[in-house]
Every structure is written in C-alpha cells, then in structure tokens.
Amino acid sequence: MTLDEKLGITIGTGQLNSARRCVGDTKPVERLGIPSLCFQDGPAGLRLVKNVTGFPAGLNAAATFSRRLIRARGKALGEEWRGKGAHVFLGPGMDIMRNPKAGRAWESFGPDPYLNGEGAYETIIGVQSVGVQACAKHLSANTQEHWRYGASSNMDDRTHHEIYFYPFLRSIEADVASVMCAYNRFNSTSSCHNAGLIGPNGTLRKAGFKGYVVSDWGATHDSAQENANAGLDMEQPGDYIFIVFGGNKLRDAVNKGEVSQARLNEMVARILAPWYRFDQDKDYPPTNFDAQKKDGSGPRNLRVNVRSDEHTALAREIASASAVLLKNSRSTTDGTPTGVTTRGLPLAKERIKSVAVVGQDAKMPNLNCSDMNECNDGTMSVGWGSGANSLEFIVPPIDAITSFLGSSASVTSSLSNNLDDGVNAARGKDAAFVFVNAMSGELAAYTIVHGNQGDRNDLDLWWKGGSLVERVAAVNNNTIVVVHSVGPVYFTWSNHPNITGIIYAGTPGEQTGPSIVDVLFGNYNPSGKLPFSIADNEDAYGTKIVYNSLGFPEIEYTEKLLLDYRYMDSKNIRPRFEFGFGLSYTTFAYSGLSIRQSGTSYVVSFTVANTGAFAGVEKPQLYLSFPPAAGEPKKVLRGFEEVILNAGASSAVTITLSERDMSIWDVVSQKYVRPSGTFQVLVGSSSLDIRLDTSIAI
C-alpha cells in the first residue's frame, strides 16, 4: 500500500466532509477492493437512520439479568448494522455508573463491574456473530460529562483492574474488534495517548487485545507521534475540535521518522484485520444510508428497511423483561393469589371500566428533535446524545393503553404535568396510571437540556413528577406509577397507601407502550432486577459529580472498590430498593444449596421453585464474600441465572465460580491471585435478600 492509502485507513475523512455517509468513516482503497469503513452510532440502535429499530438501552439490557436476551439484542443490532452496510457498531458502552447522576450511564450496564462485563461480553458475541465489528467504549473511567474533555480520572491500579477495566477484559475475551479511547485523561494523561493504557506494554495489550484502538470523536491531543507511538491506531473524525493525525500531521511524522513505517503498518494491519476476519470483504452490503440527512432524503439514502417482526418482538420482550416491579399491593376478589385482581397488579381487564392516564411522559415524544434527541417533552424512551436511537416507530404508552382497552373501558387523559389537571383526570377512576421521568445524556457541544448539562443536576423526577404522583394518589386509591428514567431517582412517595403498584421501566426503546401494557395487564410477568440501588439521598452512593472547577479537575477515585451496594454495605446503609431487587406476580423459594470443586473452579448448585399462582421467571444471584484479609467489599456479584418456571414447577440451577471470580488483582505480580481463607457463598433474589449461604475454604 502507498503512504496515502495507509493514511486514509488510519484517519477519518472528517466531520465537515459533505461526502461522509456515516458518523465516522475512512478513505477507500479502490484498487485493493477496500471500501470506506463505516462507523455508526449507537449502542441501542442506529442513529440518524430511517427504517431501523429503537432497542432498549444498555441499562435496560442489564436489568433483564438475562444473558440470553442481551446476546439476542446484540445479534439483532448486528443484523441491522449489516443490513445498512455499516461495518462497525460503536458499542457496547461499558462506562461504570460511578455516580447515579452520570449523564451517559444509561448507555452501559450500571455500577457493578461483573454485570457490566457480562453485558459487554454477550453484546459483542451477538453483534460479531453476524459479521459486524463491535467497538468497546470508552477506555478508561469515563464516568461524568462535566469537564469530560480534559478531566482526569485518578485511581490506583487495583481499582482500575477490578472496576473500570474489568468490562474491557471481558470484551477482549469476546474477541472484540476495536476499543475506543475516551475523552478524559486517565491518571493525568490523555486516554488516547496513554501508553500505560493502550501501548504495547499497556493494560489493554497485556490483557490480550489484538484489535485496533480508535479515538472518540475529537478525543486526541498533542502531536501525531505521541498518539501513534503511544498506541492509537485510528483518529476520528479526522478533523473538528483537535486534529492530530489529519492535516498532514501523521504524514509529516512518518516522513521525519518520528513514527516508523513499522508502526504505521501495524496500525493499518490492526484496522484491516477485523474487516477480513469477519468476512466483510465478501458480499458485505455497501453502505446505503446518509447520516448527514437523518430525514432519509437525498440520493444516498436508499431507505433499505432492516426492521423485522422478530426485531420488534425482541425489543418489546426486552422492554418488558427489564421492567422492575418495585411495589405491588395486590388485593383480589377472594383474597387469594388465584383470585381476580381488584387493586394492584396485574390489572384485570374485565374489571377495569375507567382509567386515567396522567403525565407528559405517556404521550408521543417530539419526533423532530435535534440530531442528539435533546428533548424531553413526551415519553422518555432513551437518553440524549450519540447513544440515542430512532423514535420513528415509537408507540407511546397512551396509544398502547387506549388500543388495548378498546371499548372495554373509558380512558381519561391528562398528558401534561399540570398537577390540577392530573388530579381531575384521576378522581373516581378504577385505576390511575401516572407516567413520570428523569433524563440525561451527553455533554456534546456543552448542550443544556432543561437545565441539565449532560449529567443530571439531582436525583429528582423531572417536571415535579413526585408532586404529580402524590397529588394523584391523594384522590385515587388504585394509583399505579411507571417511572422512565436513566438511573436512580428519589421514591420518597413509594409508601403512600393509595399507590398500589410501581414499575421502574428505565429507557425501554420504541416498544415502550406495548411492553408496559404487557406488564400492567399480566401478559408478561415482570422479572426485571435493579442494576443499581435506589437510595433516599445522594450521599448514600459515596461519590460526587464534579460540576465546578477552575480548569479541568483531577478527580480522585478515593472510594476505590466501593460503588453502589458495595459502598452502602460498608456503611450499613439500607437503600429504599437494593441492587438486584425486583418483584414478580408470583413467588419463588430457594433450597438445596451445594458446592463441588471442578478443577480450579467451584460449581454452586441449588433449586428454585415457583410457589405462587402465575408462571414466572426468577433471576437468582450469587454474591461472594472474600476472606477479610483480601480487602474486598463485604460482598460482590459473581453470578446470575434466568430460571423460567410454570406455577408449581421447580428447577435445578448451577452457577460456576471460576478461579478469577474468586481472585483479586495483585499489583505486585500484575495478575489475578486467589487469596487463601474462607469464602462465603451467598445466593438470593437480590443483594439484600439472601436465601441460601455456605462457605468454601481455600
């Protein structure tokens, strides 16, 4: 290849390039049959593109606690990328939710590194199974939007390996094609020219990564030689904000010998290897859309429809499976679980003759919002930023409820956040559905959305949502609340006696309406589990968003391994709803815990029985308590399963603890080491609802 051809592979064509079809791309090498490589947002569905599916976001995928559904979601995303001729799926996001207000946390899988790692692994396996490259992001410790273009995430080596790098380790084990380096600095050095992270002897390569490192869009700083020699393989978008490789800078560095030909060849080989490995050189669809014309206009938008009945059904199933039932004060006609519901959930359609649907969050959102979905004036199905997805086919809750009930019940709506109107709509109805939300997103061009600049200002519901809930509950004794949110919010009203049901529905994607109807009326028994804890004050989380600083801040991660439930356990804080919590319309019993050794692993076995009146799905979780001298949190998640059971049925469950699951990062030897001593094995329905326990002596 010529120097020009090599440079064209390693440098994006430019944000300001009118010929660019994707959010990022490279120059083709036509004489070798290498097309322009198409990089496209976002991790929950194609952005800026028509005729695609808007899937539930990463945090909802995590709430399913289902490897099956997470992998299926990844495969469906890959199929849509392939159908549109996009080579690289810019995801999954695996940014740890260090603080619950973090703007982009909803794109990833929550505050727990194990759950993030499993979410990343299954997504990548699914995406790449259909020949699409995945791009794991953002390396490393990209945990807030304020000051993100230069803030430094400072931490010790053990914290980095066990918390923030662990999902990337699982991504490497899934053979991920590429990794995106982050905007922020890591331990005071820019992530994209941090040799300790991405260099030949850096954390990423020592963990076995063989793919290429691509910059986040505009995340490069300083000289071309510093970035290339530190381990950066590709700069995107190639212009805009900072130009490091572009503008002939990489060319000059190569010509001067500041970047060797061998290093340039390595960069190109790393980029092209996945293109060949995934057979993208053979019958791969050409790019058939134009991301610069999101309305689908223009000759380069061929309007190829990659939607399918299967994808729509999957999006709906994941949205339902990720709905977390937080409260259910159910009563029935005969006082037994098999009776017909009179209050609470699931609602009995035949008994409900009048309902109120209250809240702006129930109505159709703004379909003509910005490229980044920087609006919150309807139902909230996804956050804003590059992780947003298509709202083209969204079905809002009001439409789905009205359609489902048909002529069987009257529906009165108050689709604003006016408190008095909500009260008037709810008074005297058989049931009142209150839809409330809280949103966040990407800083981008320092965008402010209703007073929030990426990260949320607080953990309150938007639009005085808590007051709306309380006012409606004061006049309706069968008030059911649905919360769409990007993370934890305050639930100070949850114990109100007239609130009979609460569902945390998160960011459920385009099938938000049908999926919540399925749950409300019992067509889908909720099985979601919280991928974070919900506390009554921010101090319970032990971390802060740095909003104000004289220049880019040095953010010290002094909490180390203690995030979310780990921190709360250490301080004996009991949250309102704990990590892993989620009710069902049925009940489950656990029994028969046993452990056997298998090589260096331990196989944990137990039985789960459905002891209630409905078929349902339980998500048993395994937590591990390390020997005290190990310096680990009181307990850490190390396994989970999905158990599908008819009423009265039971099933044997096995979860394997690998040697690494029982190890800590040893800074001296630079590897995972299993400590000696007694481990406690805890099995239960949430981090605080432990049903079975035993010990292992090492």
Automatic annotation (TrEMBL):
UniProt xrefs under InterPro entries: Cellulose_deg_GH3, Fn3-like, GH, Glyco_hydro_3_C, Glyco_hydro_3_C_sf, Glyco_hydro_3_N, Glyco_hydro_3_N_sf, Ig-like_fold
Keyword Transcription belongs to the record: no
Start and end residues of each Fibronectin type III-like domain: 618-687
Reaction it catalyzes: Hydrolysis of terminal, non-reducing beta-D-glucosyl residues with release of beta-D-glucose
Keyword Glycoprotein among record annotations: yes
Enzyme Commission number, as recorded: 3.2.1.21
Region annotation (Disordered) ranges: 283-302
A GO MF label: beta-glucosidase activity
One GO term of the biological process aspect: cellulose catabolic process
Key words of the record: Carbohydrate metabolism, Cellulose degradation, Glycoprotein, Glycosidase, Hydrolase, Polysaccharide degradation
Pathway(s) per entry: Glycan metabolism; cellulose degradation
Similarity-based family: Belongs to the glycosyl hydrolase 3 family.
Name of the protein: beta-glucosidase
Gene source species: Coprinellus micaceus
